[in-house]
Amino acid sequence: MTDRLDLLIVGAGPAGMAAAVAASAAGRRVTILDDNPAPGGQIWRGFSTAAAGTYPGAKPLVALHRSLRDHTVDIRSRTRVISTPAPRTLRVQDDGGAADYSYQDLILATGARERFLPFPGWTLPGVLGAGGLQALVKSGLSVRDKRVVVAGSGPLLPAVAATLARHGARIQGIFEQAPLDRLARFAFTLAAHPGKILEGLRYRVTTLSAPYRTSSWIVSAHGAEHLESVDVCIGDTSRRLACDYLACGFHLVPNLELPLLLGCTISDNCVAVDANQQSSLPHVYCAGEVTGIGGLEKALCEGEIAALSSAGKSAAHLFERRDRLARFARRLDVTFAPRRELAQLATPDTLVCRCEDVPRGALETCHSWREAKLHTRCGMGPCQGRVCGPATNFLFGWQQESVRPPLAPARVATLAAPPPSQ
Amino acid sequence: MATEPTSHPAPAAVVTVRINGRPLSAPAGASVAAVILQSGIPFRTSVSGEPRSALCGMGICEECRATVDGVPHTRTCQLLAADGMDIRTA
Ligand SMILES: Cc1cc2nc3c(=O)[nH]c(=O)nc-3n(C[C@H](O)[C@H](O)[C@H](O)COP(=O)(O)OP(=O)(O)OC[C@H]3O[C@@H](n4cnc5c(N)ncnc54)[C@H](O)[C@@H]3O)c2cc1C
Ligand code: FES
């Protein structure tokens, strides 16, 4: 048990790092807990500071990291928050076992994950998330001369295709389910957002030789032990493409498990925050993707606001910019919302819950997430509904109202440790 | 203290690990999941017997679990490969 920490931040992505820098500059002592092997979150996964300069978009990482070091911020990597054993206390599991951290103020910057939707064959090895395959490539996987189909939805798709192409992959096509007219309306509003947030969509008009098709989506994946081909629906026609990997994700959803566990109010599938980035709970602030999917700039801006507000300083000078980025985030959600046709892809025997191997057919008779968990074990496996939760929300409209600790599979000793004495 | 965000640490440019006893080399700084995926070996067998492999690459789906140096159910996408690591898939 440690002393009560001044400011605890969960998540060392752009939002958490920006918050840590601003809070330190405001005189606070900061500790960051992060599940990843190194700071940087999703966008800067696997970038060493030395190499960062050579990657497009990774420059801010170097500056943020230098500031964190100058401020001697305590960053605990490979440390996953799994429960809250006492008020204003988080329990983590790390390589050393369990530990509890008590805090004065808390900033949640837990980011987002890809939304996965089930279709026949999606459990085959070789089918990955779009950001998922990109993350593995950033972590050392070679895709040189591999044939990759990129599909799903969101500004991440062209960015992923560009990364993979840079690493020597042969992109067989980018299939965006959103219709062209929605994308066109979105592109129009982009003119009012001169930022780099949509770094991704710009790639599409540059050197990628692969076609970018709208109103197109994955139908099924095929192969014996490993992916061999996919069927995609392009307008009214279906086409089979041979490939080694399918990189497929349907935009992003916030990681709400920890905010839910603490009791933060959720609205529209995001943590509800006020102008100061404060959640419904005093002393708990939220920043980045967890308040709405808006990308790097929004994460950095909100992190700074959360830090200043929690230090009792005014962040009013940043509000206008943040509000603009938050409006942009809502446009993203509308633009890349999955079309209903995607709900028809999974057949009765297509697995929806990959941990417990629960097929769609077993879920059709259930009326709620709770009932499905009880009767089919859907969402009860190690991922605890992180994959099938958003999928069943889309397929059946089920809402996950609450979560139970531990938030991740935990060792018995971690669970059994007594809560810290107050 | 903040450590440098190095998932490409400075020493040895290549590390050697064993997957199910088979030696494999990987670039230093690679995640264990990247090494397993590169090898083509499935990560695990699902409860109904399907071969499974990494999906999310970011620590949430749990499809990349393997036994690493005797520790079962390790999420290999969140772990960097180190020289001499013993990796077992099931
Ligand atoms: C797979 C993936 C790939 C992406 N790739 C790109 C890209 O290439 N370019 C781009 O512009 N955008 C990308 N994005 C979008 C990305 O969400 C934003 O650009 C930006 O990284 C968001 O910053 P953030 O700080 O809000 O969250 P994140 O960067 O997601 O950081 C959140 C951090 O919190 C940690 N965390 C979460 N829960 C816990 C817990 N319980 N305990 C401890 N730590 C926890 C995570 O491990 C992570 O390090 C990607 C998103 C995903 C999901
Ligand atoms: S690939 Fe999803 S947890 Fe590792």
Straight-line distance between termini of chain B = 38 Å
Spatial sequence of strands, sheet with the most strands of chain B: 2-1-7-5-6
| Pattern of helices and strands of chain B | EEHEEEEE
- Provide the gyration radius of chain B in Å: 13 Å
Uncertain runs of chain A are none
Major sheet of chain A: size, sense and barrel closure?
Answer: 7 strands, mixed
- Give the bound compounds: flavin-adenine dinucleotide, FE2/S2 (inorganic) cluster
Q: Could you say which structural class the secondary elements and strand pairing of chain A correspond to?
A: alpha/beta
**How many domains in all of chain B?**
1
| Assembly status | heterodimer
Considering DSSP H and I runs of 4 or more, what fraction of the residues of chain B is helical? Answer: under 10%
- Give the overall silhouette of chain B: globular
Strand content of chain B: 25-35%
- Unreliable stretches of chain B (pLDDT < 50, length at least 5) are 1-11
* Overall pLDDT score of chain B: 88
Radius of gyration of chain A: 21 Å
Q: Count of helices of chain A?
A: 14
How does the overall form of chain A come out from the CA principal axes? Answer: globular
Q: How many E strands of chain A?
A: 21
Your description of this structure?
The complex is a heterodimer of chains A (422) and B (90). Chain A contains 14 helices and 21 strands. Chain A is of the alpha/beta class and 422 residues long. The model of chain A has no long low-confidence stretch (mean pLDDT 91). Chain B has one domain: Roll (Ubiquitin-like (UB roll)), CATH 3.10.20.30. Chain B contains one helix and seven strands; from the N terminus they run E-E-H-E-E-E-E-E. Helices cover 9% and strands 31% of the residues of chain B. In chain B, 49% of the residues are buried. The radius of gyration of chain B is 13 Å and the shape is globular. Chain B has 90 residues and is mainly beta. The chains are: A alpha/beta (422), B mainly beta (90). Chains A and B meet through helix 2, helix 3, strand 8 and helix 4 of A and helix 1 and strand 4 of B. The complex binds flavin-adenine dinucleotide and FE2/S2 (inorganic) cluster. FE2/S2 (inorganic) cluster (FES) binds next to loops of chain B.
